[in-house]
Amino acid sequence: MSVRSLVARRLAQMPSVYAVSAAASVSRTVSRIGPVSFYSTNKTEKKTEKPQSILTDDLLAKAGFEDIPEKVEETENGASGESDGSSEQGPRRRRKRAQTSKDLKRERMANYFYLSTFAGAILGVGYLCRDWDSEEERKALEAQEVDNGYTPGLMYARLNKRLSSLFTFFSEPAFEDLLPPPAPEAYRRPLTLVLSLDDLLIHSNWDTKNGWRTAKRPGLDYFLGYLSQYYEIVIFGSNYQMYSEKTVLKLDPMHAYVSYALFREACRYKDGKLIKDLSLLNRDLGKTVIIDVEPESVSAQPENALIVKPWDGKSDDYLIQMIPFLEYLATQPVKDVRPILNSFSDKSNIVEEFAQRERKLREQWAHDHKRSDLPNAGDFIGKLLGLPTVRKEQKMPLDIIREHGQFQYEQMQKYMRENAQIFLEEEKKNKEEFGKVSLNQLLTEGAPKPEDIMKAQAERVKKEQEAAAAQ
């Protein structure tokens, strides 16, 4: 510390009269001696004061911060602030930020929010624990074993059922009936055939050179065209509609074979598995058959399923080999197909097993209808008239059914070739009329019903006839 600063501090503590004379004397002495620096040997000398903040009490008050009592923070060695008797530093003080009226208002509103949330949660839990509103709600939530009542166990059971139903939106199909009601009995196919899409009808592969490539299984066109006269064919894919819809349209561009197409959105998601629930198809399970490559997909109705090996994209004729069994199943007067399907020991090898049964049936038919080699009256009369005698073997009913089915298939293909352009134009008009359905209508009303489509087509034909008559 310099002499000048030390003297200034001492003079500030003296009376004014003595301070003037002492200042004059010191100034003369300092002028003779010159600037001198020395160090004080007094250990109790106070340290230099720290810089003070420019935020004074007046500025804080003008800014809206009310003045509150200062909080004294004790030093580590006690409230006196002394450290081994060598320091005279006083207690350090810290100013706490004052709460304004806005802060108090925010705290009050937050407390109201917490209280209202807590009360709403209690009321919501109590509402979910209420008795069943109706028998339909009880059945919809699969809670037949949970009765009404206000015992803790029954209340918790109803709460659990209702809470679990809130999360089924992401694991259940959007509609309870995935297909419209079946056609009248006179126009209805005998059975419904549900076919998986991937690795059964098509196979997709990806490589770095060509990207995604999709192959159609050999014999698919004949398979769909031939069986469409016996079955209502429904394609049920495991991928999303945005990826598989165009593929289905290419398989049947004129909608002559495939009645409906369902995709991943119609599957149930349970325990990490995609399940194709046939009970949601709005069809009789006794007359429904599903062919799939994944056992997990048909775990809901395994008795209706035929599990086959996935197709790897190589050329084969497996679809053609399945036609005889499926044709036989559809042409027999059966009320329930499940006992017939379960009669096979290995349904994954049903083609070979049915071929063995058919061979035994033919042997039995040949034995029962064996013709005698002895001449009969018809042969004798034919010889007298000079007519050739030709003995024809009696055909099995199964052969007659196949001949009739093949004839119907050929006639249908001929008709489609002759009217292909008309069908494509009709399909284009249907897309223009029913392709502008909004998402809200699909979620609330569902897809257009066949009756609505037929009505719209009839109205369009009437308008075209009136326009033609006017010209």
UniProtKB/TrEMBL annotation:
SUPFAM superfamilies: HAD-like. Pfam families: NIF. Residues 186-329 form the FCP1 homology domain. It is a single-pass membrane protein. Essential component of the TIM23 complex, a complex that mediates the translocation of transit peptide-containing proteins across the mitochondrial inner membrane. It comes from Scheffersomyces stipitis (strain ATCC 58785 / CBS 6054 / NBRC 10063 / NRRL Y-11545). The keyword Calcium does not apply. This is Mitochondrial import inner membrane translocase subunit TIM50.
